[in-house]
Amino acid sequence: MQIRDYKDADWPLVWPVFQEIVVTGETYAYDPGWSSDEAKSVWEEAAPGHTIVVCDGPRILGTAKMGPNRSGRGSHVSTASFMVASDARGRGAGRALTEYALAWTTEQNYAAMQFNAVVESNHAAVRLYQALGFHIIGTVPEAFEHPVLGRVGLHVMHRFL
Known about the structure:
α3 links the parallel β4 and β5. This protein is of the alpha+beta class. The chain has four helices and seven strands; from the N terminus they run βααβββαβαββ. The two termini are 25 Å apart. It has a seven-stranded mixed beta sheet, sandwiched between helices. It has a single domain, classed as Gcn5-related N-acetyltransferase (GNAT) (Aminopeptidase).
C-alpha cells in the first residue's frame, strides 16, 4: 500500500468508494442523493487542509481528508474523515490513513485531533481510534439514522497530539 496526495484526476476512482459508503448509510450522514460534483466539493479539502488516497498499485483502496476542525479560535484542533472500500477493509488501509493523518496534523502543529461524529455502531473504527489514543469524550444519543439499527449515537472522540 502507498499513501499519496490526492490529485483531481483521482476523483473518478474515489467517487465509487465515496458513493458505496454513503449509499450503504452505516457510517456517514452525507446525502446519498448527492451528485459526483456535490460529493467532490465536500470531500476535497481546501488549504490549509489536505486530502490523500491509499493505493495498491493503480487501485485506490481508500481516502482521507484532514484539516482544522473549526476556523479562528478553534483552528488549533484538527479533524479528519476516512473512507475505505468495503473489499479493502481488514488490510490495514484505515489504520494507515489514520496514522498518516495523525503524523500530518502533528507536523502542521495542531494541538489535538477531534472526530465530531463517529457512529457508535462502527465498532471497527471506534476500536482503531481508541488503539491510536483517542478517547470518547461524549456521545450524542440517537443522532444518526442507521439503516438497520435505527437511531444510534454519535461519539465525539479526541486525542492530544
